[in-house]
Amino acid sequence: MKKTFNILMCIIIFGLLTILTQIGGIIYLLSLWLNKLFKYDFKFKQSFTFLGLYLISTLLLVPLIAPIFGREQVQHTEYIKPTNYMTVLLNRNYVNPQLNKLLMAVTSDLKGLNIQINYLDANFPFINKFPLLPHLSHNDGKKLDISLIYENSNGEITNQQKSISGYGVFEAPQPNEYNQIDKCLTMGYFQYDYPKYVTLGSINNELKFSAKGTKKLITSILKDKNLGKLFIEPHLKQRLGLNNSKIRYHGCRAVRHDDHIHIQLK
Ligand SMILES: [Zn+2]
Fold it and tell me: How far is the CA of 95 from the centre of ligand 1 (A)?
């Protein structure tokens, strides 16, 4: 009975780690095997082995191996940073080299404006069609979510964010704006505003959505000829006065895009 329970726990942990980090499940199995091999025991041996192997793989090995499979980490610069460093620690920061080129072009276009690209979930390092849940489409190295831009109380653009995870703090429609969110929710797509459960806490409540900063960022992204599509919630598209055939509506089956924008290569 105990053995069955242990096997079941192993399968669950393997599944969760794979869904969350792609390589975590395999590293967990490897750490179990290594622990069996080395007999002497100490406190937290299992966790220690797993964490050691996981960190070495994530920080050193995977960044070296992923380019063989056509992906690389989102390159950090003074103006390109993850909104939350967990994105990097969970291996959710891999893209095709073309997407890095796009980000570099955007930052050079925005030079002097103090607008930082805070990126969110990208893709896993390996295997096309392996989805980065909960985003089903982030499975080919061509997709990236980017945070909105905010201003402080003096109206100055800041690089701070309003949600710890980067998701789930919405810039909701104003009463006079088209409300796609209500429409999707009344049609029964109750997952549409689920990101509200994954903020991990809201911060910097004094910050305000920066229409001018976000518009500049989006306009600059739209200039790249390799951009395929950009998703943003319709009321923000309207508010920012954006009009470009690459801006599409993602549909009610997705989640609302007024906490971040989604970009994808052709
Ligand atoms: Zn996305």
Answer: 12
What is the whole-number distance in angstroms between the Cα of residue 229 and the centre of ligand 1? Answer: 11
Report the separation in Å between the CA atom of 107 and the middle of ligand 1, taken as the mean of its atom positions: 20
CA of 254 to the centre of ligand 1 (A): 9
Instruction: Give the up-direction half-sphere exposure of residue 247: CA atoms within 13 A in the CB hemisphere.
Output: 21
Ligand 1 centre distance from Cα of residue 58 (Å): 22
In the predicted model, what is the mean pLDDT of residues 99-116? 95
Please, which residues have CB within 8 angstroms of residue 52's CB and are 6 or more apart in sequence?
A: none
Report the distance separating Cα 5 and Cα 10, nearest Å.
9
Neighbours of 208 (CB within 10 A): 13
Order the strands of the 143-147 sheet from edge to edge.
80-82, 117-119, 143-147, 260-265, 227-231, 247-248
Contacts of 178 (CB under 8 A, 6+ apart): 234, 235, 238
Cα-to-centroid distance, 39 and ligand 1 (Å): 45
pLDDT digits 0-9 by tens, 62-78:
999 999 999 999 999 99
d(CA 257, CA 234): 9
Going from the Cα of 41 to the center of ligand 1, the distance in angstroms, rounded, reads 44
pLDDT above 90 (res 16): yes
